[in-house]
Fold this protein.
Amino acid sequence: MNKKLKPELIDEDNPEWTDDMFKHSVRFDSLPEALQSKLRGRPKAAVTKERITIRLSPDVLERFRASGDGWQTRVDAALKDWLNTHSLT
């Protein structure tokens, strides 16, 4: 089968690997541990949050979103603050 290259699909910054590139590649787990930890990215948080679905009033959502990036963290902080000042029992 004869493949024709589509110019719009060619990525100059990320070319296809050649046989020589494959020949010189190494497995990730064979790299030094210090390098592996840098390449893994951000470490997992000690305390993680749980993903949920919640329905909020449009005006509440609009006000938090208008406050910019991190609005979900501020919703979490507002709920924690409310829990500190109210009894659920």
